[in-house]
Amino acid sequence: MKLTKSNLLRGKQIRPSPIGKDIRVTDLVENYFQAYNSGRIREATNIFTQKMLKPNVTVGMSLTGALTPAGLGGACVVPLIQAGFVDWIVSTGANLYHDTHFAIGHKLHRGSPFADDRILRKEGVIRIYDILFDYKVLLQTDEFYREILRKDEFQREMGTAELHYLLGKYVAERERILGIMHPSILSTAYKCGVPVYTSSPGDSSIGMNIAEVHLMGYRTRIDVLLDVNETAAIVLGAKRSKGRSGVLIFGGGSPKNFILQTEPQIQEVLKIDEKGHDFFLQITDARPDTGGLSGATPAEAVSWGKVDPDQLPNTVVAYVDSTIAMPIMTSYALARVKPRKHKRLYDRRHQLVEQLRAAYQKGQKRK
């Protein structure tokens, strides 16, 4: 499109009309998120609901840090999974571990980020910024996981998707026994067939408890290389079925890079002809100029093959706290889009990996 004055001024006119009381989230986003990072949230919600949630798009979500102690697992991630809006996940182990506190009946509380941590330590209270909970919550969650990890079905090597699927089965059963009203990420992913990966499985309390049972002679092993190939296979499968691939990234860090490196794995390492993800939405408070924006901007990601250069208009980065953006985007999406059929990618992992292997071998024969 030629850039003329009429084209440049095609955007919706900004009107400073007074905001009403008890306004709906959809109205707030569409009519009052006008510019700056509120404008980016509006653009992200529009791309997510109008393009990424089409039936032929496979949506991957990455979760960084510890969002679930703030309740965002049950409040946002679970409803998105249940609605079929998330097809696969890469998360820190911390998010999955802390989400389990709620699933097994523990309580976390609002607090102050300015509490004296020496007193907290003396009183046996754990602090995650302004979230407070009893130290026993950690000990009892550890015991819950160790009891499960000692069972026979865990005494072998597996990827983190299978590990979390099996854990999700036991978490779901504990939720049922305790009458927990709002399910966790692991139990919901288990029921909906959504594979959940952890890019650094040793970097969390779940990994620490796996290390404990390993120290005691149990045989649980995590195959991180299987995770690399499974996630790449999910993305290639989306593209080769005449579909598209989109990523919804909350935060940065290892989960962001892991969900994005699927395309370099396909193109650079396996030499399979591909173009990159079709949609890229990121919520972050990191900056690219300090080297802290893991995986960098969508434009930079194009140079790595992570994002299709023809799809840059379908990429948005909003520099805002995930705990603000995630509830807004979740509410907006649930209000605007009907539930999608679950793709149940967990059930198709082996088939997708074989498809990836066949594409790789075909390229090797051509060479």
Oligomer: single chain
The overall number of domains is 1
Major β-sheet strand ordering: 7-2-1-9-10-11
Task: Please state the second-level CATH architecture.
Answer: 3-Layer(aba) Sandwich
The radius of gyration is 21 Å
Form type: globular
| CATH H-level homologous superfamily name | Deoxyhypusine synthase
Q: How would you characterize the largest beta sheet?
A: 6 strands, parallel
The tally of strands reads: 11
**Amount of helix:** 40-55%
Overall average residue pLDDT: 94
Estimated structural class: alpha/beta
Polypeptide structure, described:
This protein has helices at residues 5-8, 25-32, 36-52, 72-82, 93-103, 117-123, 135-149, 160-178, 185-192, 205-215, 224-240, 253-260, 262-269, 298-304, 322-336, 349-366, and strands spanning 57-63, 88-91, 109-110, 125-128, 131-134, 157-158, 196-197, 221-222, 244-250, 279-284, 315-319. Helix 7 crosses helix 10 (205-215). It has one domain (37-366): Deoxyhypusine synthase (Deoxyhypusine Synthase), CATH 3.40.910. The radius of gyration is 21 Å and the shape is globular. Helix 4 (72-82) links the parallel strand 1 and strand 2 (88-91). The chain has 367 residues and is α/β, with parallel strands linked by helices. A six-stranded parallel β-sheet has the order 7-2-1-9-10-11, sandwiched between helices. The longest helix is centred in the middle third of the chain and has 19 residues, at 160-178.
Entry keywords:
6-stranded parallel beta sheet, 367 residues, alpha/beta, 3-stranded antiparallel beta sheet
